[in-house]
Amino acid sequence: MLAEIITIGDEILIGQIIDSNSAWMAQQLNAAGIRVKQISSVSDNRKHILTAIKEASERADVILITGGLGPTKDDITKTTLAEYFKVGMKRDQETLDNVARIFARFNRPLLDVNIRQADVPENCEVLLNKNGTAPGMWFQENGKVYVSMPGVPHEMMYLMEDLVLPKLKASFNLPKIWHQTILTVGEGESFLAERIADIEDQLPPQIKLAYLPKLGTVRLRLSAYGDDEEKMQQELALQTKKLTERLGSTVAATEDIPLEKAILLLMAKNKQTLSLAESCTGGYIAHLFTSQPGASSVFVGGAVSYSYEMKEKMLGVNSDTLWETGAVSEETVREMVEGALRNFSSDYAIAVTGIAGPDGGTPEKPVGTVWIGVARKDKTIAKKYVFGNKRIQNIERTAITAMGDLLKLLREPIA
Amino acid sequence: MLAEIITIGDEILIGQIIDSNSAWMAQQLNAAGIRVKQISSVSDNRKHILTAIKEASERADVILITGGLGPTKDDITKTTLAEYFKVGMKRDQETLDNVARIFARFNRPLLDVNIRQADVPENCEVLLNKNGTAPGMWFQENGKVYVSMPGVPHEMMYLMEDLVLPKLKASFNLPKIWHQTILTVGEGESFLAERIADIEDQLPPQIKLAYLPKLGTVRLRLSAYGDDEEKMQQELALQTKKLTERLGSTVAATEDIPLEKAILLLMAKNKQTLSLAESCTGGYIAHLFTSQPGASSVFVGGAVSYSYEMKEKMLGVNSDTLWETGAVSEETVREMVEGALRNFSSDYAIAVTGIAGPDGGTPEKPVGTVWIGVARKDKTIAKKYVFGNKRIQNIERTAITAMGDLLKLLREPIA
């Protein structure tokens, strides 16, 4: 089963926005056993949209279209779809009620352009958009499915999860696939592959293993293809157990979540708290943790100590240590992480100090040199890393590595 | 002049990576007067790649292709291009020397697969990739240009900036366009449009104005089309002056930079320092500032004070204030921002405290309620905002708004 994604609108073509919708949709489709053949971004142009839909329909069974559903005259997706299917337009009462309800809630007058949001091609089945005024639309013709959705991410996501994916599963005889993700941190793809080579070789034929590497983490995704759900789930559980036992402390989670969430869940379960002392990451680690809902049950806060003075004042780092060993040194990172533990009264702390670049490097400490410290009452561990010469990558790499180091300490029995 | 972008590789189609390359390329092309007609992501499949290139060449004059140039057997872009142009392969000596140099630098043996990176279609002109082993390739056929580049962002960016764009400008009679961007913050697109309506109406015909809104900021982009560079630059400068005078303190910069960079530049020029006290943004504002190279000349550091205790300890917020007025209140944000100013000895400070969601809202203080404080020695300004109900958007919106508030204060004469 093949799908194509078409995004309509000039914002992507002029580079004003990055198309993150399509990646999300592709993930969802792949997880449901639908392979994405092509993703195309086209302009708000009638002929161009018609061509793109026709080309996609020649390659795929499902064509998912986003964008071009706003109330302005640029937005021509609906009328172009009517032209494609050679049908007229109808006014959909449920959509009109939805639009009226949304306008009433915000005390805004309902203008003609807004009423026209309820006009849809005659042959479509409306997918009610509870989060916005533009309706989703489902078309079925010659055994192919066409779906039109708004380009606003949360509206599209809601429609996909609640309506489109279930309808696709009901409409097509999709392969039944179950997934299990193992999140690992701190080891490269080839190293992991070597460690689990024999397990991978002995996987039963209905189980596939994929490596999905991303900046210091690798996701191992097991996919089970078959009809007997119970049997497939048992098989997945068995292989997951084998892999996690083999990979030991490299494993951060056995579900598809980011590393920061895995840490928050583990620490919340154990009623542990965390604080941070960030220098070269400049608040990025705090940002990762606090992007997760409910972070406050674990994360108490942190210091972004960019200057020497801040390292002394907020973390109690010794002035002599700074001036004698430098801000990027084992001694400093140890004092930083122990200072955070003490001053911020948390069970665990992370400290990082390094040279993110592009300036500030020296022959002894080139750009990319980073010291990471993790600590709890009975133990402090400090390690030196040398990453690359790109500032943003150094920041991201340091953050992931520091979380990996914390995870290892979390797993060690308390003395 | 029309271009199309084709990205090759399964990573985008399975949703593993988001295609940010294409947005960047589209920006560069648009700035050079080349309109992007379509962006397509296709799989590592010979027939599919051939079809995609053929379709693109029927619509556009320039076809930019990224990806599929690695050393593994999945990477078939080069041989497929040779098939498309009906030519054989040749070994390029300059590329081979480059590959050998890179392997020597890392003390790695040069394997057969690596040597084959120097094989390219016979009809191509090699664009030497100084940042990696995969060469860029330039093809010219029937008046159309085809360019193949690696998908690794910094390799592609370097090739585009240093080689591809200059060659495109030399090969085609491109419209001459000059741009001037005005970055505004704190006002919506329609409000700005109303304020400058008369200036916009009187723009000379060779000057176009575009509104590029994004999360609390709006970029006004003036584009001048013409042959006489000096005259066009004068016209741009004149219109920029009119617009910035009219828009006053809304204007953050007259170049195309992010708001945080505009603030850092302004403060660096005035030798001012900045500290932060972040609660609901959880380090995100610090992260924005510290993502900019050289941030340390202005930014001394900050507190991410998630808990009551951290607000008291790091910022000296009064325990009574917290318990009587709550963490999200005018009183608290004032004490936070003045505490930052005092404890971190900076000239300016920003403090934010709010309810990012999804939990923690009350009828009086719903999710999205945020207090923002900005301060310097002679003045503290605190304002309340009510944003939406999405955590990530609330964090981002708060950060941009707080920077906008700081900018206003930076512009006020010191008492």
From TrEMBL, chains A, B:
Family that this chain belongs to: Belongs to the CinA family.
Organism field: Mucilaginibacter arboris
Matches recorded under PANTHER family: NICOTINAMIDE-NUCLEOTIDE AMIDOHYDROLASE PNCC, NMN AMIDOHYDROLASE-LIKE PROTEIN YFAY
Family annotation (Pfam families): CinA, CinA_KH, MoCF_biosynth
Listed name of the protein: CinA-like protein
InterPro entries per UniProt: CinA, CinA-like_C, CinA_C, CinA_KH, Competence-induced_CinA, MoaB/Mog-like_dom_sf, MoaB/Mog_dom
All copies of domain MoaB/Mog, residue ranges: 4-170
Domain of life of the native organism: Bacteria
